[in-house]
């Protein structure tokens, strides 16, 4: 009986402490719904459609509000003005990486995506410099993407115009571009190592976007103590990192400091240069996680966008016809599309931008955090507070994009049919944490899509009105429904 009394009193004290902490914190933070002890606002959030929930909250509390995801406060930025003011105008203060418990179990604060402070600055600076050395934004990288686009076309020809699920084939192309940049070799589409890697990367994205993972990220103890699909993510990630470490070992044995071949070689040279520095951020463990970040981020985001793009083109054959007419007029049939063509193809450029806007690939971006106590719009946000940016609210702004729920390349065209840029176009986020691979992703999307549409007609297996483009998952990423189509050679 005494033990029960002690337990009840302890729980009461924890609840009172939680309430006191929340009330004192909330006094200075932006407004928001009243949280429950321990659970916060979790029961007021639909984990199947977080973006819509954030929009509903913004209508009540304004563009900057506070949610308690578990016991910790999270400040939400909703709408273009709030997102720009924070990530661009106060870029340094909002440049921290916020809490993302599942990824923290994998990355342990290393790499480029989930690191912070000086470590993040050094690794990001090195990564951007090295990618530029390896051709990012230059002709030799474009040649690589063009070659991969032709390999993709040859693989699609092997379907002989029969129905196929494009998921795997579309994953291989961007993955091979990353592989050739990171460890200087591409894989045959039938290579078993390649098949295993692609399967695990795709599976991780699906699980990370599931409602269960949104629960786990709000209550991190579930990750450590409960069974569930999150263990598959950890297992898959261990497999990928182990594979990448094998590649690092091979590079160590064949390294020529005078002639670096790829990203791994550049990093190993930097490692040697920093060997005297006990505080150096350049370690083999950090290399493995950085490679993992490049591999995962550079593969699945682009392949998912490609898959979604083809689904939308099936749904809107009028758009497809206009794009193909422009491709055949500007590029013709006898040469490969190149990046110079994009300036002469406003409708195609607008279509690709509209795909990225419409699918809203990463609805709330990756969490940010403030790097110091900051006064923001008359609220005090303490150092370390997690920040969620609703990219959905920017990409779906009805003032900038009339009828944002409709897929319409005209959102990026002026009255004369010329391509029109928009500051609201933020699929890669914005500010200091903007995606490091944005330039490569834009190149791949243009070259892969134009090369496919140059060589094939897309044939749906169902009537266009029956094609559903609603994402089946939209937690971390928006995952399109599975579908089949026929690639008919032209």
TrEMBL record:
Its cofactor is heme. Pathway: Lipid metabolism; fatty acid metabolism. It is a peripheral membrane protein. It is found in: Endoplasmic reticulum membrane; Microsome membrane; Mitochondrion inner membrane. Gene3D superfamilies: Cytochrome P450 (1.10.630.10). Its EC number is 1.14.13.n7, 1.14.14.1. It is an enzyme of class 1 (oxidoreductase). The omega-1 hydroxylase activity is stimulated by cytochrome b5. InterPro entries: Cyt_P450, Cyt_P450_CS, Cyt_P450_E_grp-I, Cyt_P450_E_grp-I_CYP2E-like, Cyt_P450_sf, Cytochrome_P450_fam2. Residues 1-26 form the signal peptide. It comes from the Eukaryota. The keyword Ligase does not apply. It catalyses: (5Z,8Z,11Z)-eicosatrienoate + reduced [NADPH--hemoprotein reductase] + O2 = 19-hydroxy-(5Z,8Z,11Z)-eicosatrienoate + oxidized [NADPH--hemoprotein reductase] + H2O + H(+); (5Z,8Z,11Z,14Z,17Z)-eicosapentaenoate + reduced [NADPH--hemoprotein reductase] + O2 = 19-hydroxy-(5Z,8Z,11Z,14Z,17Z)-eicosapentaenoate + oxidized [NADPH--hemoprotein reductase] + H2O + H(+); an organic molecule + reduced [NADPH--hemoprotein reductase] + O2 = an alcohol + oxidized [NADPH--hemoprotein reductase] + H2O + H(+); dodecanoate + reduced [NADPH--hemoprotein reductase] + O2 = 11-hydroxydodecanoate + oxidized [NADPH--hemoprotein reductase] + H2O + H(+). Keywords: Endoplasmic reticulum, Fatty acid metabolism, Heme, Iron, Lipid metabolism, Membrane, Metal-binding, Microsome, Mitochondrion, Mitochondrion inner membrane, Monooxygenase, NADP, Oxidoreductase, Signal. Belongs to the cytochrome P450 family. Interacts with chaperones HSP70 and HSP90; this interaction is required for initial targeting to mitochondria. A cytochrome P450 monooxygenase involved in the metabolism of fatty acids. Mechanistically, uses molecular oxygen inserting one oxygen atom into a substrate, and reducing the second into a water molecule, with two electrons provided by NADPH via cytochrome P450 reductase (NADPH--hemoprotein reductase). Catalyzes the hydroxylation of carbon-hydrogen bonds. Hydroxylates fatty acids specifically at the omega-1 position displaying the highest catalytic activity for saturated fatty acids. May be involved in the oxidative metabolism of xenobiotics. This is Cytochrome P450 2E1.
